Structure to design on (87 residues):
């Protein structure tokens, strides 16, 4: 699982998701016309192929990830109030 936020570049996403040269459409650009950041999404990858994404509002990060963190099936998620974060 990869957290894809506003301003994520295609090369950065391919590196984190391990999807070399995958052509991504509709990555969240800048929300300059809005008073809040664009929604983000959690992208689920299986065998270097995207299989699902879940959109979230930036004020409600249900899973707190640092920008460079990738969650795998071995990652332990800890509860922190209403959030989950990798151990």
């Amino acid at each position: 699982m990869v957290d894809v936020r506003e301003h994520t570049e295609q090369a950065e996403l391919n590196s984190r998701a391990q999807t070399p040269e995958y052509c991504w459409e509709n990555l969240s650009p800048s929300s300059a016309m809005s008073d809040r950041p664009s929604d983000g999404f959690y992208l689920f990858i299986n065998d270097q192929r995207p299989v699902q994404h879940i959109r979230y509002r930036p004020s409600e990060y249900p899973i707190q990830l640092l920008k460079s963190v990738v969650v795998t099936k071995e990652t332990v998620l800890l509860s922190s109030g209403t959030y989950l974060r990798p151990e």
The first helix runs from residue 10 to 17.
